[in-house]
Amino acid sequence: MHKFVRQGLWLLPVGIAFTDCIASVLKVEGASMRPTLNPDSNGPSDWVLVEKLSVKLQRCYTPGEVVVLWAPDNPHQQIIKRLLAVEGDTIIEDAKTHSWTEVPQGRCWIEGDNAPMSGDSKSAFGPVHLGLLEGRVTHIVWPPARMGRVAVQEQPARLLQTDRRHV
């Protein structure tokens, strides 16, 4: 028993480091990313694989990916949104009013796929700090019927100008 406890104590920091820096699994809550995630309000919640290494250590961001970030208005809550633009990009906020925003250095533009149900850059936060990004959603791992890769969906019609030399 003593040997088992010693091995368990050694594995605990390894597990914490893995889930903090490399990958973790996260339950998706809410309707802001419908239909990509949680498409059926009466069905089970999606669980997703979140890859963290490229975002946290390499600072590699790709517009169109679904990302996990710390909520700008609640530092204890993680949210899932689509990354639409990064620093240096100019994004069309509203095609009807022709309003646009240039994403400042160190910031990004995130939106939910289900705009009416999403608190995001467009409706609540404006450009958010890149330091809030925690990882990218790569796969749905639960429920079994929905297992698979989460698609990257760039929205080039929303970008007026892009300058990604520094990203």
Give the gist of this structure.
The chain is of the alpha+beta class. Helix content is 17%, strand content 36%.
Provide an overview of this structure.
By secondary structure, the chain is an alpha+beta fold. It is built from three helices and eleven strands; from the N terminus they run H-E-E-H-E-E-E-E-E-H-E-E-E-E. Strands 1, 2, 3, 4, 7, 8, 9 and 10 form an eight-stranded antiparallel beta sheet that branches. Strands 6-5-11 form a three-stranded antiparallel beta sheet, with no helix packed on it. A hairpin with a 4-residue loop joins strand 5 and strand 6. The longest helix is centred in the first third of the chain and has 20 residues, at 2-21. The chain starts with a helix and ends in a 6-residue tail after the last strand. The relative contact order is 0.21. The mean pLDDT is 90.
Discrete helix count: 3
Helix/strand-derived category reads alpha+beta
How much of the sequence lies in strands comes to: 35-45%
Return residue spans where pLDDT drops below 50 for at least 5 consecutive residues: none
How many DSSP E strands?
11
Average pLDDT figure: 90
User: What overall form do the CA principal axes indicate?
Assistant: globular
What is the H/E order?
Answer: HEEHEEEEEHEEEE
Question: In angstroms, what separates the terminal alpha carbons?
Answer: 51 Å
Radius of gyration: 18 Å
The helicity comes to: 10-25%
Give the helix/strand layout.
Layout: H1 2-21, E1 23-27, E2 47-51, H2 53-56, E3 66-71, E4 74-86, E5 90-94, E6 99-102, E7 107-111, H3 121-125, E8 128-129, E9 133-142, E10 148-149, E11 159-161
